[in-house]
Amino acid sequence: MRGRSCRRCTRLLDEGTEGFAEARHSHVGDTVHAASPGRRLGFERSPTSAVIVHIFTQRGRSTEVKQLVHKTLAERLAAVGVNGKNLFVRYFENRPDDWSFADGRAQYVEGDLPVPGR
Protein backbone atom coordinates (compact mmCIF):
# COMPACT_ATOMS: atom_id res chain seq x y z
CA MET A 1 0.00 0.00 0.00
CA ARG A 2 1.91 2.89 -1.42
CA GLY A 3 2.87 5.69 0.95
CA ARG A 4 2.31 3.71 4.16
CA SER A 5 4.81 2.18 6.55
CA CYS A 6 4.97 -1.60 6.93
CA ARG A 7 3.66 -1.22 10.49
CA ARG A 8 0.67 0.82 9.26
CA CYS A 9 -0.10 -1.68 6.49
CA THR A 10 0.03 -4.55 8.95
CA ARG A 11 -2.35 -2.73 11.30
CA LEU A 12 -4.79 -1.97 8.47
CA LEU A 13 -4.76 -5.56 7.26
CA ASP A 14 -5.14 -6.92 10.80
CA GLU A 15 -8.14 -4.68 11.49
CA GLY A 16 -9.66 -5.56 8.12
CA THR A 17 -9.24 -9.27 8.78
CA GLU A 18 -10.68 -9.02 12.29
CA GLY A 19 -13.59 -6.86 11.13
CA PHE A 20 -14.41 -9.30 8.34
CA ALA A 21 -14.26 -12.25 10.73
CA GLU A 22 -16.35 -10.42 13.33
CA ALA A 23 -19.11 -9.56 10.86
CA ARG A 24 -19.47 -12.91 9.16
CA HIS A 25 -18.10 -15.32 11.74
CA SER A 26 -15.37 -16.52 9.38
CA HIS A 27 -12.69 -19.06 10.07
CA VAL A 28 -9.42 -18.36 11.81
CA GLY A 29 -6.83 -18.03 9.09
CA ASP A 30 -9.01 -16.08 6.64
CA THR A 31 -7.11 -12.92 5.75
CA VAL A 32 -7.73 -9.56 4.12
CA HIS A 33 -5.38 -8.17 1.48
CA ALA A 34 -5.55 -4.50 0.46
CA ALA A 35 -4.20 -2.14 -2.20
CA SER A 36 -4.34 1.61 -2.84
CA PRO A 37 -6.58 3.02 -5.61
CA GLY A 38 -6.79 6.40 -7.30
CA ARG A 39 -10.07 7.79 -8.67
CA ARG A 40 -12.83 5.19 -9.01
CA LEU A 41 -16.50 5.60 -9.97
CA GLY A 42 -16.39 9.33 -9.37
CA PHE A 43 -15.18 9.02 -5.79
CA GLU A 44 -12.06 11.03 -5.07
CA ARG A 45 -9.58 8.98 -3.08
CA SER A 46 -6.14 9.98 -1.98
CA PRO A 47 -3.53 7.61 -3.48
CA THR A 48 -1.87 7.42 -0.05
CA SER A 49 -5.05 7.19 2.02
CA ALA A 50 -7.44 4.98 0.05
CA VAL A 51 -7.92 1.30 0.80
CA ILE A 52 -9.50 -1.36 -1.44
CA VAL A 53 -10.62 -4.58 0.21
CA HIS A 54 -11.40 -7.60 -1.98
CA ILE A 55 -13.26 -10.40 -0.22
CA PHE A 56 -13.34 -13.84 -1.84
CA THR A 57 -15.69 -16.28 -0.11
CA GLN A 58 -18.17 -19.09 -0.55
CA ARG A 59 -21.70 -18.29 -1.71
CA GLY A 60 -24.55 -18.21 0.73
CA ARG A 61 -24.42 -14.99 2.77
CA SER A 62 -27.53 -12.85 2.88
CA THR A 63 -27.62 -9.21 1.80
CA GLU A 64 -27.90 -8.29 5.48
CA VAL A 65 -24.68 -10.14 6.34
CA LYS A 66 -22.85 -8.50 3.43
CA GLN A 67 -24.04 -5.07 4.54
CA LEU A 68 -22.83 -5.87 8.06
CA VAL A 69 -19.42 -6.83 6.63
CA HIS A 70 -19.18 -3.45 4.84
CA LYS A 71 -20.26 -1.53 7.95
CA THR A 72 -18.01 -3.46 10.33
CA LEU A 73 -14.97 -3.06 8.07
CA ALA A 74 -15.60 0.69 7.87
CA GLU A 75 -15.90 0.94 11.66
CA ARG A 76 -12.83 -1.16 12.38
CA LEU A 77 -10.69 0.62 9.79
CA ALA A 78 -11.92 4.03 10.99
CA ALA A 79 -10.44 3.09 14.37
CA VAL A 80 -7.00 3.03 12.72
CA GLY A 81 -7.50 6.23 10.73
CA VAL A 82 -9.16 5.18 7.46
CA ASN A 83 -11.80 7.71 6.38
CA GLY A 84 -14.92 5.90 5.15
CA LYS A 85 -14.77 7.94 1.93
CA ASN A 86 -11.46 6.22 1.19
CA LEU A 87 -12.73 2.66 1.71
CA PHE A 88 -13.73 0.53 -1.27
CA VAL A 89 -14.99 -3.02 -0.58
CA ARG A 90 -15.65 -5.65 -3.25
CA TYR A 91 -17.32 -8.88 -2.14
CA PHE A 92 -16.83 -11.86 -4.51
CA GLU A 93 -18.81 -15.04 -3.92
CA ASN A 94 -18.24 -18.38 -5.58
CA ARG A 95 -18.61 -22.15 -5.10
CA PRO A 96 -16.26 -24.77 -3.70
CA ASP A 97 -15.28 -25.92 -7.21
CA ASP A 98 -13.98 -22.40 -8.00
CA TRP A 99 -11.01 -22.78 -5.61
CA SER A 100 -7.58 -24.33 -6.04
CA PHE A 101 -5.07 -23.62 -3.28
CA ALA A 102 -2.15 -25.62 -4.70
CA ASP A 103 -1.03 -28.12 -7.30
CA GLY A 104 -3.83 -27.34 -9.78
CA ARG A 105 -6.36 -29.32 -7.76
CA ALA A 106 -9.74 -28.30 -6.34
CA GLN A 107 -9.14 -29.27 -2.71
CA TYR A 108 -12.71 -28.59 -1.58
CA VAL A 109 -14.14 -30.77 -4.35
CA GLU A 110 -11.61 -33.57 -3.83
CA GLY A 111 -12.21 -33.63 -0.08
CA ASP A 112 -8.73 -32.50 0.98
CA LEU A 113 -10.27 -29.48 2.73
CA PRO A 114 -13.61 -29.13 4.52
CA VAL A 115 -15.98 -26.75 2.76
CA PRO A 116 -16.56 -23.73 5.04
CA GLY A 117 -20.07 -23.55 6.41
CA ARG A 118 -20.88 -27.21 5.81
How is this structure best described in words?
The protein is α+β, with helices and mostly antiparallel strands and 118 residues long. Among the domains are: 13-38 and 68-86, no CATH class; 88-118, no CATH class. Helix content is 33%, strand content 15%. The protein has 3 helices and 3 strands, in the order αββαβα. The chain has helices at 6-24, 63-78, 107-110, and strands at residues 34-35, 51-58, 87-94. Strands 1-2-3 form a 3-stranded mixed β-sheet. Strand 2, helix 2 (63-78) and strand 3 form a beta-alpha-beta unit. Helix 1 packs antiparallel against helix 2 (63-78). It starts with 5 loop residues before the first helix and ends in an 8-residue tail after the last helix.
Key descriptive features of the protein:
118 residues, alpha+beta, 33% helix, 15% strand, globular
The helix tally amounts to 3
Look at the helices and sheets and give the structural class: alpha+beta
What is the radius of gyration computed over CA atoms, rounded to a whole number of angstroms? 15 Å
- Which strand order does the major sheet show? 1-2-3
Query: Roughly what is the average pLDDT, rounded to an integer?
Result: 78
**Number of extended strands:** 3
Write the layout of secondary structure elements.
Elements: H1 6-24, E1 34-35, E2 51-58, H2 63-78, E3 87-94, H3 107-110
Parallel strand pairs: 2-3
Antiparallel strand pairs: 1-2
Helix pairs in contact: 1-2
